Recover the amino acids of this structure.
């Protein structure tokens, strides 16, 4: 029987050899390690071949231990596989470092798993990286109420004014890298990308690249990989419903925003500011899982509350707070009245306005008429006076 380690089996030494051979087998590292960039923004394909010395050893199961420097976690990541290829995400702005070991088991090693002492390694320098200091800054993607994604960025100070920027993205569902479907433009400059209408998958790595060119050369590109469920910004709560148990409690209720965000994924923050008679303000923040809350109230105090939400830790690793709802206060004249009463108030207001307008009109018309009449009377008087002055006889005839 052929044997990797050059030993002949001997029944008497069998037991002893089993462990001894396992430790002293020399296993070669894999060969032809190649890293291929398929243009998927850093998703690289790693391929290798078994060592020539093991090609005909089909009776010995081979595995491989692949290690690569994970630039996102800043440490080595290792996996074991019986395949001869593997795909991993790399940051193309950094050095790519990959090592592969051979692992052998089966009759060739008497059953124990033996790892090659050496590894095959490939180190790739980052490709041409562009003019230093021209990379965009603060690249932020927001998944608005889980309905659509927008990504925004800021220019760096060294970026030439005439620089042209572009965004590309890729995820496993795409055959090839795509360009931004609709740029967000401000003052003729691209400042973001609007993905509304584009179905980006959640729980899947999506890589974005913003690169560009300028008369002075290529801009330094940036690469970002993220999962959009970690970038949700829930919709703003429009209205807080407020009920009071006079003098003791304030019962708050609000609606979870409609849309794709599951209600059980939301966590709420309520901010209550209380103003006492002395004008002193106290601020209180409360977190809750339910869209309701009861707050104690005190006499001679005015409370204003507002609410905002975020994804909880069971649904996402990261989050954005929603905007604050408009504040609702108690006591307050109008907004604390139930809707029916508010309607009555408006009706009364309209009636009052109507009555006042009518009265004012009447007064105007009356005043106008009166003015006209007195003018006519005056005119008549003056006609008479003139007549009488010119023709005293008329007066004598007693008209
Ligand atoms: C493997 O076996 C084939 C035939 O079975 C032979 O042609 C080849 O040279 C062998 N390769 C090695 C590396 O021993
Ligand atoms: C391991 O392999 C590298 C080449 O990949 C070689 O330079 C080095 O000498 C080897 N080390 C040992 C201990 O065999
Ligand atoms: C930007 O990246 C895309 C996608 O990788 C590439 O096709 C394009 O040529 C790059 N543009 C520049 C100016 O580097």
């Amino acid at each position: 029987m052929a044997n990797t380690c050059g030993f002949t089996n001997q029944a008497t030494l069998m037991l002893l050899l089993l462990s001894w051979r396992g430790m002293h087998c020399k296993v070669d590292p894999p060969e032809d390690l190649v890293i291929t960039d398929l243009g998927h923004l850093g998703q690289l394909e790693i391929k290798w071949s078994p060592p020539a010395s093991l090609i005909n050893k089909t009776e010995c199961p081979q595995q491989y231990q692949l290690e690569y420097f994970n630039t996102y976690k800043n440490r080595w990541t290792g996996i074991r596989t019986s395949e001869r290829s593997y795909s991993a995400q790399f940051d193309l702005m950094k050095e790519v470092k990959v090592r592969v070991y051979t692992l052998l088991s089966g009759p060739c090693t008497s059953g124990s798993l033996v790892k090659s002492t050496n590894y095959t390694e490939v180190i790739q320098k980052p490709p041409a990286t562009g003019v230093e200091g021209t990379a965009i800054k603060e690249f932020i993607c927001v998944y608005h109420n889980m309905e659509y994604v927008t990504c925004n960025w800021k220019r760096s100070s060294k970026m030439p004014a005439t620089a042209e920027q572009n965004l590309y993205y890729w995820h496993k569902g795409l055959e090839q890298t795509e360009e931004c479907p609709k740029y967000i433009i401000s003052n003729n400059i691209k400042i973001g990308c609007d993905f509304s209408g584009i179905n980006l998958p959640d729980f899947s790595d999506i890589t974005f690249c913003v690169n560009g060119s300028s008369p002075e050369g290529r801009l330094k590109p940036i690469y970002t990989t993220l999962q959009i469920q970690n970038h949700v910004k829930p919709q703003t709560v429009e209205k807080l419903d407020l009920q009071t148990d006079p003098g003791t409690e304030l019962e708050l209720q609000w609606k979870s925003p409609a849309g794709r965000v599951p209600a059980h994924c939301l966590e709420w923050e309520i901010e209550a500011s209380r103003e006492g008679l002395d004008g002193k303000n106290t601020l209180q923040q409360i977190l809750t899982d339910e869209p309701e809350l009861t707050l104690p109230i005190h006499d001679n105090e005015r409370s204003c509350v507002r609410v905002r939400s975020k994804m909880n830790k069971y649904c996402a690793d990261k989050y954005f707070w929603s905007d604050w709802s408009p504040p609702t206060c108690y006591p307050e004249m109008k907004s604390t009245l139930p809707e029916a009463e508010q309607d009555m108030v408006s009706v009364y207001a309209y009636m009052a306005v109507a009555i006042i307008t009518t009265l004012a009109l009447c007064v105007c018309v009356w005043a106008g008429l009166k003015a006209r009449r007195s003018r006519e009377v005056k005119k008549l008087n003056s006609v008479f006076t003139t007549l009488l002055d010119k023709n005293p006889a008329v007066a004598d005839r007693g008209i």
Notes: The chain is about 15% helix and 35% strand. The helical segments are 14-24, 339-390, 392-396.
